[in-house]
Design brief:
271 residues; alpha+beta; Immunoglobulin-like; 2 domains; 5-stranded mixed β-sheet; disordered N terminus
Protein backbone atom coordinates (compact mmCIF):
# COMPACT_ATOMS: atom_id res chain seq x y z
CA UNK A 1 0.00 0.00 0.00
CA UNK A 2 1.32 3.39 -0.87
CA UNK A 3 1.18 6.23 1.64
CA UNK A 4 0.79 9.81 0.77
CA UNK A 5 3.72 12.07 1.61
CA UNK A 6 1.22 14.44 3.16
CA UNK A 7 0.73 11.99 6.04
CA UNK A 8 4.45 12.16 6.98
CA UNK A 9 4.96 15.92 6.65
CA UNK A 10 3.23 16.91 9.89
CA UNK A 11 5.45 14.55 11.87
CA UNK A 12 8.64 15.97 10.38
CA UNK A 13 7.36 19.51 10.80
CA UNK A 14 6.47 18.95 14.46
CA UNK A 15 9.88 17.44 15.24
CA UNK A 16 11.71 20.37 13.63
CA UNK A 17 9.64 22.93 15.52
CA UNK A 18 10.35 21.22 18.85
CA UNK A 19 14.12 21.43 18.23
CA UNK A 20 13.87 25.15 17.52
CA UNK A 21 11.83 25.61 20.65
CA UNK A 22 14.47 23.78 22.69
CA UNK A 23 17.25 25.97 21.30
CA UNK A 24 15.29 29.15 21.98
CA UNK A 25 14.43 27.96 25.47
CA UNK A 26 18.08 27.24 26.18
CA UNK A 27 19.04 30.70 24.99
CA UNK A 28 16.36 32.29 27.15
CA UNK A 29 17.52 30.36 30.20
CA UNK A 30 21.12 31.36 29.54
CA UNK A 31 20.16 35.03 29.18
CA UNK A 32 18.12 34.87 32.38
CA UNK A 33 21.00 33.22 34.24
CA UNK A 34 23.43 35.93 33.08
CA UNK A 35 20.93 38.61 34.06
CA UNK A 36 20.41 36.97 37.45
CA UNK A 37 24.15 36.74 38.09
CA UNK A 38 24.56 40.37 37.07
CA UNK A 39 21.80 41.45 39.46
CA UNK A 40 23.26 39.25 42.19
CA UNK A 41 26.71 40.74 41.65
CA UNK A 42 25.35 44.27 41.75
CA UNK A 43 23.40 43.44 44.91
CA UNK A 44 26.52 41.99 46.53
CA UNK A 45 28.57 45.04 45.56
CA UNK A 46 25.86 47.26 47.01
CA UNK A 47 25.87 45.30 50.26
CA UNK A 48 29.65 45.58 50.52
CA UNK A 49 29.45 49.32 49.92
CA UNK A 50 26.83 49.68 52.68
CA UNK A 51 28.98 47.59 55.04
CA UNK A 52 32.05 49.70 54.24
CA UNK A 53 30.07 52.86 54.89
CA UNK A 54 28.95 51.59 58.29
CA UNK A 55 32.48 50.56 59.28
CA UNK A 56 33.87 53.83 57.95
CA UNK A 57 31.39 55.86 60.00
CA UNK A 58 32.37 53.91 63.10
CA UNK A 59 36.06 54.63 62.52
CA UNK A 60 35.36 58.31 61.85
CA UNK A 61 33.18 58.68 64.95
CA UNK A 62 35.74 57.07 67.26
CA UNK A 63 38.57 59.30 66.06
CA UNK A 64 36.42 62.45 66.06
CA UNK A 65 35.29 61.84 69.65
CA UNK A 66 38.91 61.41 70.65
CA UNK A 67 39.92 64.68 68.99
CA UNK A 68 37.07 66.64 70.53
CA UNK A 69 38.22 65.61 74.01
CA UNK A 70 41.39 67.60 73.52
CA UNK A 71 41.97 71.19 74.55
CA UNK A 72 41.46 73.99 72.04
CA UNK A 73 45.09 75.09 72.48
CA UNK A 74 48.16 73.35 73.78
CA UNK A 75 48.80 74.25 77.44
CA UNK A 76 52.43 75.15 76.75
CA UNK A 77 53.44 78.84 77.08
CA UNK A 78 53.93 79.22 73.32
CA UNK A 79 51.53 76.79 71.60
CA UNK A 80 52.03 76.02 67.94
CA UNK A 81 49.50 74.87 65.35
CA UNK A 82 50.09 71.15 64.97
CA UNK A 83 52.07 68.78 67.18
CA UNK A 84 54.76 70.29 69.38
CA UNK A 85 58.08 68.98 70.68
CA UNK A 86 57.91 65.37 71.81
CA UNK A 87 54.51 64.97 70.11
CA UNK A 88 56.10 65.06 66.66
CA UNK A 89 56.45 61.54 65.30
CA UNK A 90 55.63 59.98 68.70
CA UNK A 91 52.08 58.84 67.92
CA UNK A 92 48.75 60.34 68.78
CA UNK A 93 48.81 58.99 72.34
CA UNK A 94 50.81 62.17 73.09
CA UNK A 95 48.33 64.54 71.44
CA UNK A 96 46.53 66.79 73.93
CA UNK A 97 44.95 69.51 71.84
CA UNK A 98 42.76 69.64 68.75
CA UNK A 99 45.28 70.86 66.20
CA UNK A 100 47.86 68.22 67.15
CA UNK A 101 45.85 66.01 64.77
CA UNK A 102 46.29 68.37 61.80
CA UNK A 103 47.63 66.29 58.89
CA UNK A 104 47.43 63.03 60.86
CA UNK A 105 47.19 59.91 58.68
CA UNK A 106 47.25 56.26 59.71
CA UNK A 107 46.94 53.02 57.76
CA UNK A 108 45.68 50.71 59.03
CA UNK A 109 43.62 52.50 61.70
CA UNK A 110 44.97 52.12 65.22
CA UNK A 111 43.99 52.60 68.83
CA UNK A 112 45.25 55.73 70.52
CA UNK A 113 48.10 53.65 71.90
CA UNK A 114 49.22 52.62 68.40
CA UNK A 115 47.78 49.09 68.29
CA UNK A 116 46.39 48.28 64.78
CA UNK A 117 42.65 47.56 64.79
CA UNK A 118 41.86 44.02 63.62
CA UNK A 119 40.35 43.40 60.17
CA UNK A 120 41.06 46.89 58.82
CA UNK A 121 43.91 46.16 56.41
CA UNK A 122 43.68 48.49 53.43
CA UNK A 123 41.82 51.17 55.42
CA UNK A 124 43.13 54.69 56.02
CA UNK A 125 42.10 57.46 58.43
CA UNK A 126 43.21 61.04 57.91
CA UNK A 127 42.50 64.33 59.69
CA UNK A 128 42.46 67.94 58.56
CA UNK A 129 42.23 70.79 61.09
CA UNK A 130 41.92 74.44 60.14
CA UNK A 131 40.85 77.73 61.64
CA UNK A 132 37.55 79.05 60.33
CA UNK A 133 35.79 82.36 60.62
CA UNK A 134 33.10 82.32 63.34
CA UNK A 135 30.98 84.43 60.98
CA UNK A 136 31.37 82.00 58.07
CA UNK A 137 32.06 78.43 59.11
CA UNK A 138 32.78 77.35 55.54
CA UNK A 139 35.61 79.85 55.13
CA UNK A 140 39.09 78.80 56.25
CA UNK A 141 41.25 81.40 57.94
CA UNK A 142 45.01 81.76 57.60
CA UNK A 143 45.26 83.43 61.02
CA UNK A 144 44.14 82.16 64.44
CA UNK A 145 40.44 82.44 65.31
CA UNK A 146 38.21 81.15 68.10
CA UNK A 147 36.88 78.29 65.96
CA UNK A 148 38.50 75.22 64.43
CA UNK A 149 37.00 72.91 61.81
CA UNK A 150 37.97 69.25 62.06
CA UNK A 151 37.49 66.85 59.14
CA UNK A 152 38.01 63.10 59.52
CA UNK A 153 38.12 61.09 56.29
CA UNK A 154 38.07 57.29 56.14
CA UNK A 155 38.97 55.40 52.98
CA UNK A 156 38.92 51.72 52.06
CA UNK A 157 41.40 51.34 49.27
CA UNK A 158 40.71 54.13 46.80
CA UNK A 159 37.07 54.58 47.83
CA UNK A 160 35.94 57.03 50.48
CA UNK A 161 33.90 55.19 53.14
CA UNK A 162 33.10 58.11 55.45
CA UNK A 163 33.71 61.79 56.03
CA UNK A 164 32.83 63.60 59.26
CA UNK A 165 33.12 67.32 60.03
CA UNK A 166 32.93 68.96 63.46
CA UNK A 167 33.57 72.41 64.88
CA UNK A 168 35.48 73.10 68.09
CA UNK A 169 35.30 76.51 69.74
CA UNK A 170 37.69 77.90 72.32
CA UNK A 171 34.81 78.31 74.78
CA UNK A 172 33.42 74.76 74.57
CA UNK A 173 33.94 72.80 77.79
CA UNK A 174 35.25 69.28 77.40
CA UNK A 175 31.98 67.56 78.28
CA UNK A 176 31.64 65.18 75.37
CA UNK A 177 31.25 61.39 75.64
CA UNK A 178 34.43 59.36 76.09
CA UNK A 179 35.39 57.51 72.92
CA UNK A 180 35.98 53.78 72.82
CA UNK A 181 38.04 51.74 70.43
CA UNK A 182 36.77 48.96 68.18
CA UNK A 183 37.31 46.35 70.90
CA UNK A 184 34.83 48.11 73.19
CA UNK A 185 37.54 48.98 75.73
CA UNK A 186 37.52 52.50 77.13
CA UNK A 187 41.04 53.87 77.61
CA UNK A 188 42.27 55.50 80.81
CA UNK A 189 42.40 59.24 81.30
CA UNK A 190 45.83 60.38 82.45
CA UNK A 191 46.32 63.31 84.82
CA UNK A 192 49.89 64.29 85.72
CA UNK A 193 50.43 66.81 88.50
CA UNK A 194 53.23 68.61 90.31
CA UNK A 195 53.08 71.37 92.88
CA UNK A 196 55.19 73.80 90.88
CA UNK A 197 56.31 74.21 87.29
CA UNK A 198 59.72 75.49 88.41
CA UNK A 199 62.49 73.82 90.38
CA UNK A 200 66.15 74.25 91.23
CA UNK A 201 69.05 72.14 90.11
CA UNK A 202 69.66 69.19 92.45
CA UNK A 203 66.34 69.77 94.25
CA UNK A 204 63.81 66.93 94.37
CA UNK A 205 60.59 67.42 92.40
CA UNK A 206 57.51 65.36 93.30
CA UNK A 207 55.17 64.13 90.58
CA UNK A 208 51.71 62.62 91.09
CA UNK A 209 49.52 60.64 88.70
CA UNK A 210 46.98 59.31 91.21
CA UNK A 211 44.18 61.42 89.75
CA UNK A 212 44.31 59.31 86.58
CA UNK A 213 41.16 57.24 86.09
CA UNK A 214 39.87 54.32 84.05
CA UNK A 215 36.15 54.06 83.10
CA UNK A 216 36.35 50.24 83.17
CA UNK A 217 38.03 50.24 86.61
CA UNK A 218 41.00 48.39 85.12
CA UNK A 219 44.24 48.16 87.08
CA UNK A 220 46.58 50.84 85.74
CA UNK A 221 50.34 50.95 85.26
CA UNK A 222 52.26 54.23 85.26
CA UNK A 223 55.44 55.15 83.38
CA UNK A 224 57.21 58.50 83.87
CA UNK A 225 59.66 60.06 81.44
CA UNK A 226 61.34 63.10 82.99
CA UNK A 227 62.68 64.53 79.74
CA UNK A 228 66.35 64.10 80.63
CA UNK A 229 66.72 60.47 79.54
CA UNK A 230 65.59 59.14 82.92
CA UNK A 231 62.39 57.26 83.72
CA UNK A 232 60.44 55.85 86.65
CA UNK A 233 57.40 53.69 87.34
CA UNK A 234 54.51 54.08 89.76
CA UNK A 235 51.58 56.41 90.33
CA UNK A 236 53.91 58.84 92.13
CA UNK A 237 57.55 59.63 91.49
CA UNK A 238 60.30 61.98 92.57
CA UNK A 239 63.14 63.29 90.43
CA UNK A 240 66.17 65.56 90.73
CA UNK A 241 67.47 67.46 87.71
CA UNK A 242 71.22 67.85 87.39
CA UNK A 243 71.19 70.69 84.86
CA UNK A 244 69.18 73.84 84.28
CA UNK A 245 66.71 73.94 81.40
CA UNK A 246 63.10 73.31 80.44
CA UNK A 247 61.99 69.68 80.50
CA UNK A 248 58.87 67.93 79.24
CA UNK A 249 57.68 65.35 81.75
CA UNK A 250 55.43 62.65 80.30
CA UNK A 251 53.23 60.28 82.26
CA UNK A 252 51.93 57.30 80.26
CA UNK A 253 49.14 55.21 81.76
CA UNK A 254 48.07 51.79 80.44
CA UNK A 255 45.06 49.69 81.38
CA UNK A 256 46.48 46.31 80.35
CA UNK A 257 43.90 45.85 77.56
CA UNK A 258 45.43 48.08 74.90
CA UNK A 259 44.09 51.34 76.32
CA UNK A 260 46.78 54.00 76.66
CA UNK A 261 46.75 57.69 77.50
CA UNK A 262 49.41 60.26 78.29
CA UNK A 263 49.71 63.65 79.95
CA UNK A 264 52.61 66.10 79.99
CA UNK A 265 54.06 68.75 82.26
CA UNK A 266 56.65 71.42 81.54
CA UNK A 267 59.25 71.90 84.27
CA UNK A 268 61.67 74.82 84.22
CA UNK A 269 64.81 74.04 86.21
CA UNK A 270 66.89 77.01 87.36
CA UNK A 271 70.47 77.10 88.62
Amino acid sequence: MRHSASHLAPGRGTAGFSLIEAVISTLIVAVLMVASLTVLGASRAGQLKIADRARGEQLATELMNEILLGAYLDPSPQPLFGPEGAEIGAGRMYFNDVDDYAGWTESPPQTRGGVPLPDFDGWTRSVAVEWVSPNNLTQASASPTDMKRITVTVRHGDARAARMVALRSCGWAQSVPTYQDATGNLPPRTVAWTASSTAKVNSAVAFDGRNSTDPNSDALTYAWNFGDNTTAAGSTAGHTYAAAGTYTVTLTVRDGRGGVDADRLLITVKP
